[in-house]
Amino acid sequence: MKNLKVLLSLILVIVMVGAFAGCSDGTNNADANSNVEQNNNQSNNENNDKDVNDEEELSGTVTISGSTSVEPVGIGIAEEFMAFNPNVIVTYEGLGSSAGITNGNERVTNIGATSRGLRDNEKEFGLVEAVVAYDGIALITHPDNPIEDLTREDVQKIYLGEATNWSEFGGNDEEIVVVSREAGSGTRGAFEEIVDFEDQLTSNAIIAEGNGNVQSTVAENPQSIGYVSFTYINDTVKPVPIAGALPTVENVQNESYTIARPFIMVYHEDNLNDVSKAYMEFALSNEGQKIVEEVGAIPVN
User: Fold this and answer.
1) Do 60-134+262-295 and 136-260 share a fold?
2) Stretch 53-58: mean pLDDT, rounded?
3) DSSP secondary structure of 189-240
4) Superfamily of domain 60-134+262-295
5) What's phi and psi for 215, nearest 5 deg?
6) What is the pLDDT of residues 239-254, one digit of tens each?
7) Residue pair 292/166 in contact by the 8 Å Cβ criterion
8) Which architecture does CATH list for 136-260?
9) How far apart are CA 283 and CA 289, in angstroms?
10) Residue 131 above 80 pLDDT?
11) CA atoms within 13 A on the CB side of 31
């Protein structure tokens, strides 16, 4: 009987030892599995972070050419875009609207910039047109010129050569010096279309290439009149109200000042690389439109 008790005691000890060993192995296995899972999760997170960073890092070049009127907007957006993307280079060459449309169509540059709408023959190119801003065309004269206001009809007569003396509009008895842009200029095309004297510019006009040259020419002659984008108005010239409305952003938006036009980026979809697509998206984003406003143009949204 005593031997039976001893035997049962030994069996019980063996069973308990086995159970304890099993529990210990289970705990160790669970810990091992947990460590493996944590390591896998950490590795996956690192890979995911790497993928996100790879997607966010842009690099490459965007080439733009075209309107000198669009240039301050295009460059302003480009500078901010490059600040966000230090591995990106955006170039802008001011060649005029017609050249920009041609270069965009012939894929000389990724994007063409124009400050006029496409003509009928240009619409056949199949270009995408994206309005990135609006601009008013301002009539300017010398700060010493006493003229205070003109109507659109007055401006038409001046640029047709039908009115040649400032006294006809309440100004000094002095000959009007007419300053205009070069042929092919988007600003000139838009101005002539809006004022309604297309291809009938007076032969006495001084031709200046680019907004900057118009501005400096007018600033040097008290009897001169010219037209520029809003972004080129400064204290060296005086903006002339049209029918009582000064050329301002607010007056374009409320339609009291009507000599205005769109700034358009044109391109073939298959000629945009990833960086160019990102540039266009940025141009129309809230951040891009803030830049449009900061450089003196009128945002589209």
Assistant:
1) yes
2) 64
3) HHHHHHHT-TT---TTPEEESSHHHHHHHHHT-TTEEEEEEGGG--TTSEEP
4) Periplasmic binding protein-like II (3.40.190.10)
5) -60, -50
6) 999 999 999 988 887 8
7) no
8) 3-Layer(aba) Sandwich (3.40)
9) 6
10) yes
11) 6
**253 alpha-carbon distance from chain centroid:** 19
Distances (CA, A) of 76 to 47, 92, 258, 299: 36, 10, 25, 13
Which string of DSSP letters, residue by residue, matches 63-82?
EEEE-TTTHHHHHHHHHHHH
Determine the residue type at 78: A
Across 219-238, average pLDDT:
96
CA distance 171 to 62: 49
Answering whether pTM is above 0.90, one says no
Name the amino acid, one letter, at 195.
V
Quick check: 193 and 173 in contact, CB under 8 A? no
Read off the tokens for 259: 């000599």
Would you give the DSSP letter of residue 298? B
Give the bridge partners for 190, in sequence order.
Answer: none
Burial (CB < 10 A; 0-12, 13-18, 19+), residue 128, is: middle
